[in-house]
Design brief:
The complex is a heterodimer. Chain A is built from 13 helices and 14 strands. In chain A, β13 (366-367) and β14 form a beta hairpin. Chain A is an alpha+beta fold. In chain A, 53% of the residues lie in helices and 19% in strands. The longest helix of chain A is centred in the last third of the chain and has 44 residues, at 271-314. In chain A, α1 (3-15) crosses α11 and α2 packs across α11 (329-362). In chain A, the strands form three sheets. A six-stranded mixed β-barrel of chain A has the order 4-5-10-7-9-8. In chain A, strands 2-3 form a two-stranded antiparallel sheet. In chain A, strands 13-14 form a two-stranded antiparallel ribbon. Chain B is α/β, with parallel strands linked by helices. Chain B has a single domain, classed as Rossmann fold (3-Layer(aba) Sandwich). In chain B, the strands form two sheets. In chain B, strands 6-7-8-3-9-10 form a six-stranded mixed beta sheet, with helices on both faces. In chain B, strands 2-1-4-5 form a four-stranded antiparallel beta sheet, with helices on one face. In chain B, a hairpin with a 2-residue loop joins β9 (208-213) and β10 (216-222). The longest helix of chain B is centred in the C-terminal third of the chain and has 18 residues, at 172-189. Classes of the chains: A alpha+beta, B alpha/beta. The interface between A and B is medium-sized, with 24 and 24 residues.
Chain lengths: 415, 234
């Protein structure tokens, strides 16, 4: 039997029971469409997270203190207080660290911000003037923290757009007074919105103060040596391709300053690494979504097997007739396998189309209160098609084998 | 052409063993028209299945055109059925979904069947159904369905036609037509025809009557005056 004949025979058999074939198909359609749609959403989430981090600048290194050990118990990375302001400024050196364009140390704490009758609890970052450029922020109004502010521990604050809106609504906050932990601060500027936040994390929900102010007026931490401890040193590079070189330079300088002979008391990560690590995490999320949808595809496959088993029983006599007419086992096997595969592949095709349409419809819609973008990937579509064909083969082969093994006489006698 | 030597066949119905054939020996030559008669349970259907290569003997030897059927693989048996043997059934065994034409094409699907449509058309015209090719079995009378069955049996130009109670479900006029077709196939094309029947009229239309009882052949006699059916196709 040639391919054309097999396909024609399979199609006409399926066509004889359109309702049944349609419902079986629907099982696969739903499964494949679910896989495509959920994967598109997952990919969209992944992309928007990556984009948001990339919007913070890709040519960044983060230097953080290593983990503090107390009696053998690690308190986790960043818990040590080994990095100081002096370390930060030493990293900006044309001789030792030529790859570094700018250095922006930061410390962070949380505080209650109060303006009149409005208040909010937000993250406060103590920063230097370099922070704005290094982290790719823009001001929507007012001015940023100046070297003078840092020198004089000025009680000035730059508000994130979300904080500004919460406290002042549509009024211009610049020049207004706010209270941070009961100290009065003057609002000197507002950051441009980065957008794309969610209820757990937003780049617009923060406030920036001079690093010295944060240290001496807001933070409870004090260093024994008298210098200012910093939690993160943002290092901006001239060129994103110099990441590896820059990491070596920065590490060398810090090892010299800290007189390290064995284990580093700091860690350096690049923005690139952060993005990669995050992508790995979100990949798991995407695959997880796909797997959940895959279950419904599996159920669709079981539906095919079920209907094929019924079909084999119903058509026992037909199988007998075909065998008497000279059909070999292989012919019968092929006939039923191709019916199952046509069902699953047809369902896969319709499902991919439906999933494509759904992911376009869902693009930009609000899901769970978060605007969601979807990314339809052709690879996933091809994969879904291949998987659905494989499911047809897998779940069709057992019923087909039962059909092929029937004894011609018993099949002919079947009522 | 057909040679059975001391052939036995036992069927198992659950735990009970039912001996269907208990040592049958017979020969059918090329171009013969033979009737197999006997009461139900006499083993004539089993004999038919064996001759038709639908089953193989438990012991003894069955040679079909020089091949020892008992030693053949399932695939080889299917090939023989496809190329050499045409089956005609009491209940026609047409596929209800398919048109007369598609039913006749069926044997051509297996094995290298070229010009399927044309060959099926010719076979249907031979049995006088050239104007009914696109009808489904349910749209045809019993006699017409059986003629579709005959066309299907003939489409591969077999050397043997096996008819199992071919007129069992038909009125006498249709029966007469079917017998006439079988006779003309035998006479004009030299086809070997084996008919299982319990109707003496049909048996008398053949050249030789083999009678079975309780799984053995009890008589094997030539017909003295072969009754000729009146060909009145249409």
């Amino acid at each position: 039997m040639n391919v054309q004949t097999i396909l024609f025979t399979a199609l006409s058999s399926l066509g004889a029971n359109k309702m049944r074939a349609g419902l079986t198909l629907l099982g696969v359609v739903i499964g494949v469409a679910a896989v495509i749609t959920l994967m598109s959403i997952g990919k969209g989430v992944q992309q928007s997270i990556t984009q948001r981090i990339e919007s913070l600048g890709t040519n960044l290194l983060f230097v953080r203190p290593g983990d503090a050990n107390q009696g053998g118990f690690s308190r986790g990375q960043g818990s040590a207080t080994t990095l100081t302001m002096a370390d930060a400024f030493a990293l900006k050196d044309d001789v030792f660290t030529p790859s570094v364009a700018a250095v922006a140390p930061e410390i962070s704490t949380t505080a209650q911000v109060v303006a009149g009758r409005n208040n909010t609890n937000t993250r406060i970052y103590g920063v230097t003037p370099e922070y704005l450029a290094a982290r790719n922020f823009d001001l929507s109004s007012g001015e940023f923290i100046t070297p003078g502010h840092v020198r004089e521990n000025s009680q000035v604050v730059v508000l994130g757009s979300e904080v500004a809106e919460t406290l002042f609504g549509f009024r211009n906050p610049v020049g207004q007074k706010v209270r941070l932990n009961s100290r009065q601060f003057k609002v000197i500027g507002v950051l441009e919105s980065k957008g794309g936040g969610n209820r757990f994390f937003s780049l617009d929900d923060q406030a920036l103060v001079p690093i010295t102010t944060a240290y001496y007026r807001l933070s409870s931490q004090r260093t024994a040596q008298g210098g200012i401890n910093v939690q993160t040193i943002n290092v901006q590079l001239h060129d994103v391709d110099d990441v590896d070189k820059a990491i070596r330079e920065v590490a060398t300088v810090l090892r010299l300053r800290h007189r390290i002979t064995r284990e580093d008391d700091f860690s350096i990560t690049s923005q690139q690494e952060t993005i990669e690590a995050l992508q790995e995490t979100t990949n798991t999320f995407v695959v997880f979504l796909g797997a959940i949808a895959g279950i419904s595809l599996l159920v669709g496959g079981i539906g095919i097997m079920n209907i094929m088993l019924v079909s084999v029983t119903e058509r026992t006599r037909e199988i007998g007739i075909r065998k008497a007419m000279g059909a070999k086992r292989r012919d019968i096997l092929l006939q039923f396998v191709s019916e199952a595969t046509l069902l699953s592949l047809g369902g896969g095709g319709v499902g991919v189309t439906l999933g494509f349409v759904l992911s376009i419809l869902l693009n930009g819609r609000s899901l769970l209160g978060t605007p969601t973008q979807t990314v339809f990937s052709p690879e996933v579509a091809v994969l879904a098609l291949v998987v659905s064909a494989a499911i047809g083969l897998f779940f069709g082969i057992y019923p087909a084998m039962r059909a092929a093994r029937l004894h011609p006489i018993e099949a002919l006698r079947y009522e | 052409m057909i040679e059975l030597e001391n052939v036995t066949k036992i069927y198992r119905m659950g735990k009970v063993e039912v001996p269907a054939l208990r040592g049958v020996s017979l020969t059918v030559g090329q171009g013969e028209m033979v009737a197999i008669m006997g009461p139900s349970g006499s083993g004539k259907s089993t004999l038919m299945n064996l001759i038709g290569c639908l089953d193989v003997p438990d012991s003894g030897r069955y040679t079909f055109e020089g091949e020892d059927v008992g030693r053949l693989s399932d695939d080889r048996l299917a090939e023989i059925r496809n190329r050499k043997i045409g089956f005609i059934f009491q209940t026609y065994n047409l596929l209800p979904r398919l048109t007369a034409l598609a039913n006749v094409e069926l044997p051509l699907l297996y094995g290298n069947g070229r010009d399927r449509r044309r060959r099926a058309m010719e076979a249907l015209e031979k049995v006088g159904l050239g104007d009914r090719v696109h009808h489904r079995p349910t749209e045809l009378s019993g006699g017409q369905q059986q003629r579709v069955g005959i066309a299907r049996a003939l489409v591969k130009n077999p050397s043997l036609v096996l008819a199992d109670e071919p007129t069992g479900n038909l009125d006498s006029r249709s029966s007469e037509e079917i017998v006439a077709i079988l006779q003309s196939l035998n006479r004009e094309q030299g086809l070997t025809v084996v008919v299982v029947t319990h109707e003496p009229d049909i048996a008398a239309s053949t050249q030789r009557i083999i009678t079975t009882r309780d799984g053995v052949v009890v008589s094997d006699e030539p017909v003295k005056n072969q009754r000729m059916a009146l060909a009145g196709i249409g």
